[in-house]
Protein 1
Amino acid sequence: ELPNVKHSADAVAIRIPDDDGGDSDSTTTDITYGKLKELVEATATILSESAGLGAGGVPGDVVSIVFPNEVSFVLSFLAVPYTRSVSAPLNQNYTREEYKFYMEDNESKLVLVPEAGGGVPEAEMAAEELGLPVYAVGWNEKDGVSVKHKSGPKTIARSSSSESPADEVGGNGDGGQEKKKAKLTFEPRPSDVALFLHTSGTTAKPKGVPLAHSNLVASMNNISRTYRLTPDDAVLLIMPLFHVHGLM
């Protein structure tokens, strides 16, 4: 089983400085571990019910995630592997052709973009050319998480033998009668691929690097030991989250 990190549900997991131009009296917005868990589970459930992510216990769907550093990136990145699917973060400054290359190479089934700021047009155009569903994910302190279909098909393409998401998670049948809803349960395993990255491509064509949950846990343990991090420490993030050093 995957190890559980013991934290109080009321402990702060993410602290977001308010954009105040560097005022020393600035305030922050805090997200506790309990709230983060709630938001991630809500995001995963919506993606499963609406887009069919992980529906029917099908593991391994790759999801291209294209966001700046913001809370909705964190929620998307954590929610995807929670459904036994694979997060594939991409640089938000790629060109359409670069997005097409990476989405085809990692065999993306779904693309997630930010709700705020008009999304990421180049990534959305690439997804449209590849026939991929695009969903926008947003978050604010008042309303919580928002996940909405933006363009392309509404659900992940499956083989004809696969059940439709509506059959598994509910929906309106003939005559407006609601079908029985199956309980959504997600049980990620240590061997499941959780993250898909590409090499930089400095000396050759970029190559895909799949990383399992167990790989990520080992990396985080090594980083914690190296920097002697404790639950009382706060870490300032300045790296882009699409990069492995920002994620870890």
Note: The two ends are 21 Å apart (CA to CA).
Protein 2
Amino acid sequence: MKKALMILLAVSVVCWISFASAQQEKPKTAPPATAPAATPKVVPAKESLKTAEGEITAVDTKLCTFTLKDASGVEKQFSTTPVKIKMVKVGEKVSVKYKET
């Protein structure tokens, strides 16, 4: 029994050492060369954002949208996150910065 345990221990140590040395010798290869990725066009934030001011006339918590009516009477619908839609109240006068898509 002792002899079998010693052989098992020796084999385990040899396997562990060979595995560790194989990991160190393995060259790290770069991914295969492909066409260079297209760089996205960066637009400064100040130029891409528009501002709308007015009163909130409707809130839809299921779709996370609200409707904003500006001073000229034009209504626009905006989307937001589920967390932020809980802070929106009908009748509030707000200023919204948005990017038109």
Note: The radius of gyration is 31 Å.
Protein 3
Amino acid sequence: MTFEELYDVTNPDEPVKVAEHKDIENDRQTVTITERIITMYTNVADKATGEKTIDAGKEVTIVDTVSLDGIEKGVKYQLKGWEMVKSENAEFIINGKCVENNLTFTATDSTMEIQIAFTFNASELAGKELVTFEELYDVTNPDKPIKVAEHKDIEDKGQTVTITGNPDEPTTPESGTPIDKGNPPKTGDTTNLALLFLLLILSAAGLVFTAYRKYRSMKASHN
């Protein structure tokens, strides 16, 4: 709402008000300040294939394509993004740090498309779904960034990728040709074998003794 007063300043030391316009209900004196609404549409995919399913691996990169509408040309913005584990509805943490990235840019138009990438180890994420969250800040004053938009929907398919494949597992060596070692003798079998061996020795000794006596007898008869 604009109010006005008109003064006669023929004598600048003693200005005289000659007219005014102060009507709080006057539409012609009124302007409406509307809040700038910025919308964000996102799509996340594997950088290598463009697909929304990614094989589990030690290093994967996903690209988040963010379409912005309603931003102000010439204004400096910062896009911040981070990964969420859908099943836990929690930030994806590796070595104590959230997997995140940010990108600072100056708007060249009211509608723009921005890409931001995330690279991480996904070797232990087989079967998990990752959802990318984003926030957009006006950083005209870098000491006092102002959040102007966000896109944080854990159920949004456009923001989601699925990690497939099995995590690394130790390989089981192939079994070679089995070697038939035979059946090991039981305790009873071992005892029986020992007795049989002893009997064979005794029998042999008996045969030797018998032969020796026969030889002595024959020698005595010849004498």
Note: The longest strand covers residues 60-69.
Protein 4
Amino acid sequence: MSLLHRRRVRALQQQPWRPVDTTTVTTVANLVDRFTERKRQDTDTAQATIGSYDSVAGVITGPDGCGEPTLLEVRPGRIVKWLRSTATSRGAGIAKTARSVLSGASDIAIEDGALNQNPMRMLPKMKRPRPAGAQAIPPGEVPALRTAIATNKLVAERDLTDLLLLLLLATGLRVGEACALRWDEHRPRRRDAHSGRYTRPRARRGHDLTRPTRAAAQSPCQPTP
């Protein structure tokens, strides 16, 4: 932004007869400040959410943020680049919250007639990296694990040694599958077993016992010692 342009922006922002109006020379930082101030006055917004917005607003308007450009200068591609950089340097959660703040700031510009549509809704969704799945224990580490379980006092006090050593470690069953195992599903001669699993529904407390489907029952069984 040139020095002359900066002076024009500052002059328009300081005009007393248009103290909060939004124009094409309004900066992103100005809209972000107005958005966070509006949220502070909103009694329906939780204090934790307000604190999160205030913290991220500081990132947006800071030296490495994207608050300096005006509405005339800002482009979706520039915002996407900044959000990706923020996700790398500060985490996907910060970048996702920043997108929400920028979207709310853009809504203010739409209300004032400076924008026809919210550019933030045109951007690709921010996805949090999902944790990697469970990793198999390397065979070379199994003896040390067996020793650690067999000599653990807490495991012995809770009578979990056989469960951890003989059932989970030997069969590869998950905890929910081991808890759902029934004797009639264990075939000692074939040394295998079918097992359902205990699951915890999100909508309510408690556990549901999920039995295997017919297709699952016809699939290869879990080997047992």
Note: Residues 140-223 form one domain.
